[in-house]
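Here's what a typical entry looks like (RNA-binding protein):
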Amino acid sequence: MEREWIAHFHDDEKNFVDKAWDWIQRAENHTVKRTDFLDPRQCFIVESLANRADVNLHMDGGYPGAERKRAVFAPAYRDPAEEDMGIAVLEITSPDSRFAELEHGDFMGSILGLGVKRDKVGDIHVLGDACHILVAKEIADYFSMNLFQVHRLGVSTSILPAAELRTAETKLEEVSLSVASLRLDGIASDVWHLSRAKILIPIKAGRCRLNWKVEEDPSAPLKDGDVVSLQGFGRFKVLEIEGTTKKGRVRVKIGRYL
């Protein structure tokens, strides 16, 4: 790949870009490649690269509107949508009444605690009476044999066909802020109740992502629809920039992911 093209990506993305370009080159040489689950930023990258080559690309996360998806690269003469995407539904249940209090992070922590890489796991749907998780089919049985607890609660697991997936609506806690500007550090410090000095540390350390891309500039301006995540704190979405007060401050409505 031309070095001028790869220069458009953040330093921590370049290994993935090189890997994705290798997948594309293999597809050009008549090899079908199915990836693990990709986050939205990675999906954008592979789509951008595929558009520069003579290959076909199909992405699917197990249901319409999925955030995390697997991709299939195929030679130009093959339809990748006909390939098996290798996605299974892991259902987790428990008779314990406290199960309904578990959150997304509890399930993710238990999954990663089994030594499973994040890229083998798609979207997680916490439903109250159950949790449905999209997983790579090739390791689905591993969960059935090894996942017995979530946040110290005993659980049972089963593998379901994709047609039995139940999805949960994304839950956001709405917060109205009055900020001096739309700078990333200012809004993030208010959302997570951190001082401006403390919010700068994780941002400058590369632990902040803006629309799934690493953002190390504290002064980066936010706009409607932007999604910000901070490792160890969670993520939020800019729902609406509502206007300016008489004192020149900006009213912003934020949705904090629960």
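The helical segments are 3-6, 14-28, 40-50, 104-112, 140-146, 184-191, 196-204.

More examples are in the samples folder.
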